[in-house]
Amino acid sequence: MGRWYEIASFPSMFQPKNRINTRATYKLNKDSTVQVCNETWSCGKRAYIEGTAFKADPKSDEAKFKIRFYEPPFLPIFPIVGDYWVLYLDDDYQYALIGQLSRKYLWILCRSNTLDEEIYDELVEMAKKDGYDVTKLKKTTQTDPSPESENGPVDTKGIWWIKSILGK
């Protein structure tokens, strides 16, 4: 649980192309689901979407989840459900490799907004061995310091979402 910074990912049509400081915050709910808040900054404004994660198979010990978001963020009426598989998590709970069965999406996450290059390369190699096309992996720009406040300009109209669907 807690905050994780996106170090790299496969580009997604659901994210702005010019995004920076992308991160996710996870909070355990009383019903064992997980509240998810994905945030990014685009054109100086904070864009975010909230969702809920739940075990793909409640009887399994595997770290395979489903995440449900409602689209578009400015009028959340269409549920979008995606796979979220924890492929690797280090023993100290500091960095992770996240993917899914289709191998269309991949994320490298870290507790801090930077990751040692040697560890990054190890995670990329793991993904490659798992069948991911790591040539699609794009590093995410993280500023130092990263924005820690949700206060400030927010894209309340979902302009980032519309632009991302249009490929901008």
Summarize the structure in short.
This protein has 168 residues and is mainly beta. The protein has helices at residues 117-129, 159-165, and strands at residues 2-9, 20-28, 34-42, 45-55, 64-71, 78-89, 95-99, 107-110, 138-139.
Secondary structure: elements and pairs:
Layout: E1 2-9, E2 20-28, E3 34-42, E4 45-55, E5 64-71, E6 78-89, E7 95-99, E8 107-110, H1 117-129, E9 138-139, H2 159-165
Antiparallel strand pairs: 1-2, 1-8, 1-9, 2-3, 3-4, 4-5, 5-6, 6-7, 7-8
Give an account of the 3D structure.
The chain has about 170 residues and is mainly beta. It has a single domain (about 1-160), classed as Calycin beta-barrel core domain (Lipocalin). Helices cover about 10% and strands about 40% of the residues. It has 2 helices and 9 strands, in the order ββββββββαβα. It has an 8-stranded antiparallel beta barrel. The longest helix has 13 residues, at about 115-130. The protein is globular.
Biggest sheet statistics: 8 strands, antiparallel, barrel
**Which percent bin holds the helix content?**
10-25%
Overall number of domains: 1
CATH class descriptor name: Mainly Beta
The number of helices is 2
- Total strands: the figure is 9
Descriptive terms for the model:
168 residues, mainly beta, Lipocalin, 8-stranded antiparallel β-barrel, globular
